[in-house]
Structures are given as C-alpha cells and as structure tokens.
Amino acid sequence: GSLVMSRWTPALTYPAPQVSASGSVLANLAVTSCDLRWIAGSGSGRMVIMSEGTPVNTHPSNGVAYVARNTFGVRESLGPNNYVVYCSTDTFVSLKGLKPATRYYVKIIEYNGCGSSIVYESGSDTLSFLTSARYYYTKSTGALNELATWGDRPDGSGNAPLSLSIDSVTYCVVNNMFPYIASDSVVFGSPSCKVI
Fold this sequence. Notes:
Elements: E1 22-27, E2 34-39, E3 45-52, E4 83-88, E5 92-95, E6 103-112, E7 119-120, E8 125-130, E9 134-138, E10 150-151, E11 171-174
Parallel strand pairs: 9-11
Antiparallel strand pairs: 1-2, 2-5, 3-4, 3-6, 6-7, 6-8, 9-10
C-alpha cells in the first residue's frame, strides 16, 4: 500500500463587528446624485444598502459576498427595492441614478472577512434623504405649454425637458421676470399642483 498525506486547512472564522458605522452625512445633493460619507465602525469593510420610498427592510446573509454598484437599482438586490450601492473599505460613495424629488433610505452595515467567510454586524447606521426637484426656466420667448420654451439653466438655455408630466416627479418651473412670458400653461401628471 501507499500512504497519501494531505494538509487540512481549517476555514477562517471572523467575529462580527461590534461598533457600527456612524455620523453618516450627505454632500452635493442634486437632482439625480449625491455623495454619502460616514465614520467607519470596527469592521474591516462596510456595505451600503439603499431603497427608494420605504426604509431598507433587509439584512445581508453571513457567508455571502455581494456585488455593489453606485448607480441605484443597477446591481445586486437584497429583495424588492433594496440595492447594494457600496461594499468595500472606504467611508465614501458617490451615488448616481436617483430620481428627482424622491425619498431614499440608506443602511450602512459593517463586516469582517471576505467571500464565504464574511460576517456582517447585526446593527447598522441609517439615514434618509430627499433628492432635489427638477428646475426649468423660461427662455425669452415662447409659450409656457411648449417644452422648447424651457431650459435647465436660469437664463432658459440648456436642456429642455422631455416631459413635464411624469407621474410623481416634482418639477419647479420658473417664468423669468425679465422678459416675462404672458401665457397659460397646463400641468399634467398625478399628483399635480400648479403654483403661480
């Protein structure tokens, strides 16, 4: 007979982090993007989960490494409306792909380890925020009910809206005082509100 020797390597085990991330703050909040910063907890890395309209209602599973993408709704989902937008060792992420005038919820979770040995904390740091509305301004001439009359720069130049009637999107439309366009406009969509 022959003797076969093999080396057994035990799986690494990591403790769950004991200190959560904290102090999460937003910067450069815009219509479809913003920057999120936080103070690291005691983990070797952290995951950011984000949801639209309702609080994050899920938690990652130990032993599962998730793929993140900072464009909301594009990558790994942890159930309906819960997306991993960051998963690494830094304390900063630039978020993209957000909707105007929409509330988002963020949950930051510390972890230790990697791959099938990853262990997530049971707590988390949470935050919610509202993105800015879309602003459009009038050009010097035109009719208020024509999209070409509007631009996204204060002088009316720039990109015209593709629509002013998407449901549940907030538009702020400003009729410049000089020159002022005297005509009627119609607001569509649901819910809608016309402020004069």
